[in-house]
Amino acid sequence: MPEASRSYVPAAGHHWLLPLYDPLVSLLGGDTARKALLDQATIRSTHRVLDIGCGTGTLAVLIKRLHPDVAVVGLDPDPKALARARRKAERERVSVQFDQGYSDELPYAAASFDRVVSSFMLHHLPVQVKEGTLQGVRRVLAPHGFLHVLDFAMPSSRPHGLTRLFHSSEHLKDGAEDLLLVLLREAGFDDPKVIAHRPMLFASLAYYQASARASEPGVA
Questions:
Q1: Which CATH superfamily, name and number, covers 15-211?
Q2: Among candidates 33, 34, 19, 57, which has minimal Cα distance to 201?
Q3: What sign results for the dihedral spanned by CA atoms 39, 40, 46, 49?
Q4: Could you tell me which of 89, 182, 105 has the C-alpha nearest to residue 140?
Q5: pLDDT, tens digit (0-9, with 9 covering 90-100), for 171-185
Q6: By CB neighbour count within 10 A (0-12 exposed, 13-18 middle, 19+ buried), where does 55 fall?
């Protein structure tokens, strides 16, 4: 698969850190935090689920392992991370569709997913790309669908510790909770809110939830 044509921030913040990403995130509590995200998402066997910024596929594979009848799609611009994701799915003997692409250019039909999830990804994006991403997610969500996001609960101040090592991008300053809630409302979501916080070593995590308006299916 060819390299992505646009620039992007890899899952670990730097390409050379990619082999260390999964073990370190697990060590810091990321796997437990992702499991809590799925508990909040109340995924059912009839659902189609999209994981945007799926990285090495941990969340997408976990969804399929916990919900074998669910159709799961993972999207990420990084071909090296996707290669790891596909190998991970093969080891777990689960079928997940992994696509290379960008979150603000979702290559899927309107109203084609019941749940869209994202973990540790949105903070990478500048505001304009966040806007396009959320508008695209709103478009591909079916009526009564939900977006569930897990990300760092970042203030506007500079990150520190391992959070800064893995996520040194200047876009971290755009990850404040209030801004994301505003962007969700502007993208057409109903009742966007922070539903929980969770401590993580060297960081704090926030869980977001927003719903699609049943009266306007597939509208961005």
A1: Vaccinia Virus protein VP39 (3.40.50.150)
A2: 33
A3: negative
A4: 105
A5: 444 446 789 999 999
A6: buried
